[in-house]
Amino acid sequence: MEFTKGHGTGNDFVILPDPDGALDLTPGLVAGICDRRRGVGGDGVLRVVRAAKHPEGVVLADTAEWFMDYWNSDGSFAEMCGNGARVFVRYLLASGLATPTAGTLPVATRAGLVRARLEGDAIAVEMRRPRLYDASSAVLGGLTLPGTAVDVGNPHLVCALPAGVDLADLDLTRAPGFDPRLFPQGVNVEFTTPGDPVDGTDGHLLMRVYERGSAETLSCGTGACAVAAVALRDAARDTGTITVDVPGGRLTVTVTDDSCWLSGPAVLVATGTLTLP
Questions:
Q1: For 90-141, how does the pLDDT look when each residue is reduced to its tens digit (9 = 90+)?
Q2: Beta pairing, strands 104-109 & 112-119
């Protein structure tokens, strides 16, 4: 079958067009496709399927034609992927499968409906407003780091690093420890440190992330939204715009009264033919 490779700030995906939901996608197949030595390689798979043809998308078929069937690189499901949604929309537009109406394009996901809009070379997606709901901590290399649990359609734990701990020195080759009672389905863990002021925004943070099901990635869109929401809370603000720099580039997050917009580059880099076992 045909595939396309794309990325958003280095968060890379294998895109599989399957409009009628005919592909028998399995965890083993996804893991094989995402293998960086024996497969195409990627942080996850984006299956492009009509919402009406997918059992989890059919409930949104009246409001969105396309369902983003996202899988982590280990073959597990994910409720939402902010960078994946932006790359998914770039693919729909580039392949002629969809055209924005009044400047926006709806996409169905496991976390509900998201809207996308073009912003020059960037694509922004509107997701639910992040919900900060508990305090917890992550354990990494003998350090216990306090953090905030955040729901962005998927679970996050945002940990600001204390003075004397360098973001670049963190060893994210292993998964951080977390409280399984609070996160029974696992959690994406973000580590942050302040950055230099950026004009036109209300804050600037540097971030690294360990994603459940994918290990450390160069970027995490929903993680950037979680980080921005915590930064605004710490600044005693309900809304605002935060710049988040990840190893793969720069994202801009705008939290409004009722939603959250994630903006950044979304690039298609290759197409090819995938031989399935």
A1: 999 999 999 998 889 999 999 999 999 999 889 999 999 999 999 999 999 8
A2: antiparallel
Taking a C-beta distance cutoff of 8 angstroms, is the pair 196, 247 a contact? no
Domain ranges in the chain are 2-122+265-273, 131-257
> 11 a known binding residue?
yes
Burial class (CB in 10 A: 0-12, 13-18, 19+), 242: buried
Are the folds of 2-122+265-273 and 131-257 the same? yes
* Pairing mode of beta strands 155-160, 215-217: unpaired
Is 82 known as a binding-site position?
A: yes
User: 2-122+265-273 — its CATH code?
Assistant: 3.10.310.10
Q: Which residues are catalytic?
A: 81, 220
Q: Is the pTM of this model over 0.90?
A: yes
- pLDDT at residue 270 is higher than 70: yes
> How far apart, in Å, are the Cα atoms of 56 and each of 59, 159, 217?
7, 32, 26
pLDDT value of position 62: 97
Q: Would you say 63 is a known binding-site residue?
A: no
Torsional sign, CA 50, 56, 57, 59: positive
CATH number of 131-257: 3.10.310.10
